[in-house]
Write a structure and sequence with these properties.
Layout lengths: L2 H78 L4 H8 L6 H23 L4 H30 L4 H31 L3 H15 L1
Helix pairs in contact: 1-3, 1-4, 1-5, 1-6, 3-4, 4-5
Length: 209
Amino acid sequence: MSEGWVAVVSAAAGLVGAALGAIGGYFSGRAQARGTVEGVQLQLSGQQAEALWQAEIDACAQFVDACNRALFKLGQLLGVAGLDHEQEQQLSVYGIGSRDQLLRELRDLQDECTLREVTLLLRMPTTEAESARAVGHALTLAANGLHLWCAARAGQTEDEPDRRRDAHQGIVTYRQVLKQFTITAQQRFAQPHGAAVETRQRSLFRRRA
């Protein structure tokens, strides 16, 4: 083999080796870049999951707070609605409103609870939403029962004792439904969010690798 041919073959081999090295570097770079992109996407997904989880916790806390204030107002009304005008006036010294005033405040709280419920339902999984709706439904029934009793008392109808008993039972039921919802929510939010835990575990594995 002539020296010229050897030089040509050597040059060709060098070019092939360089090309293979470039191709290998290209695919290696692509794999590394893809891994980096996937890592960033995974991190962003975890951050989004955490943000959504926190938003649900905040919405649930606001809903429970509004519902508890409505429960307190129902209790006030149950006590005041059975008083006559003179007794109401005596209680006003202690900052307790009249029956009509408490009814207006209750309606405002019902509106707030409805708004909080809608906000919460937008963030809750569908499997958990029914329990929130049950709280809102129980509040509506309790408020309606009080309105019916107040109307029966004002009209001095014969069914006034029955209406009072129904109003009391409606409040008791609402309190139980709200209590169960609160306990369930506390247990659920006390557990680490699944997506966030998985993200942290994957990040830890990547660092160790």
